[in-house]
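Re-run with default settings, no changes from the original entry. Doing this only to confirm the output is reproducible before filing.
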Amino acid sequence: MPDPRAPLDPQVKVLFDMMAANRAQRVLEPGPMREGLGALAPLLVAGAPSVAAEREIRIPGPAGTLRLRVFHASDPAGSPRPVIVYFHGGGYVVMSPETHEKLTKQICVGVGAMVVSVDYRLAPENRYPAPLDDCLAAFRWVRTHARELGGNPRLIAAAGDSAGGNAAAAVALRLVAAGEAPPSALLLLCPWTDMALDTDSMRRFGPDDGVLDTDIMTWFRDCYVRPENWSDPFASPLRGDLSGFPPTLVVVGEIDPLLDDGVKLARRLEQAGRKVVLQSHAGMPHDFMLFPGIDEGARAIDGICRFAKSALGG
C-alpha cells in the first residue's frame, strides 16, 4: 500500500527518522515516556529567543499549588501588555513548560505579549478532569491578577498545542458554561478535540506516524479519560456548544493524524457563526512548529503571531 504521506518533506523525514530510532526502545509507561521526552528538551529549546523578563511563580490550585512560567516581551513595569495563557501538549501525560519554552518565547516575542505557561497535573496519576481543572484555575487566576504581572486583563487569550489545544478549547467551554467571559481569543495548534479518535486522518496517518502514532495516541487517551467520559464536551470540545467561542485560530498539519480534529472544529465554529481562521500547512506532521529544523514551523509561528496581534489589538 503506498504511503499516504508521499512524497515526504525532506525535513520531516529527518524528524521521522529520529523518532523512529527512539521508538524501538519505547515503553508506554509514564515514567519512561517522561524521561525520554524530557531528554529531548535541550533539542526543543535550542535557539529560543531572548525575552525582556521571565520568572516562575506559584499560585493556588484545585489540589495544591500550580507552577507558572511567565515571559515578558517588554519591561513588565511598562504599559500593560496582552496576555496569552499557554497549555503545553503531551497527551496530558508527558512534557512540560520546559519542553515548550522555545515555542512560548517565540509567541511572546512575536506577539509582544506576556505569555504564562502552565504546569498542570498529568495523567494517569491525575485523570480527567484534574488537568483541565488546573488549566481553568490558572486562567482564572491570571485574568484576576494580570495587572499585577504586567498584563491587560481585558486582552487575554488561551492557547495550546495538541492536548494543550484541547485544554484551551475546554477552558473556553467551561468559562461560558459558568456564565463567565470566554478568553479574548483562542490559539489552537494541532488540537486534539475528540476523544473517540475515530477520524479518517487517524486511520490514514496514525498506524505508522513518525510523531503521533495510533498506539501512543490511544495510550494517551486511556491514561487521561475513561470511556464513559469520552463524550463529555469538556473532554471532547468538538462535541460542545461552540456558540460562545471567541475569535479562534486553528493550525493544522496536513499529514497529522489529528488533522480532522482541527478541521472539524473549524467547520463547526463556522457553522456556529463564530470568527475562525483555519491555518493549514501542507506536508506537515503533528506539532511541527515545536521541532527544530522544519522551516514551515517558523512560517506557522508567524501566522499564529499575526492572528494573535490582530485578535488582541497588538
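The beta strands are 53-61, 64-72, 81-87, 114-119, 151-161, 186-189, 248-253, 276-281. The mean pLDDT is 96.
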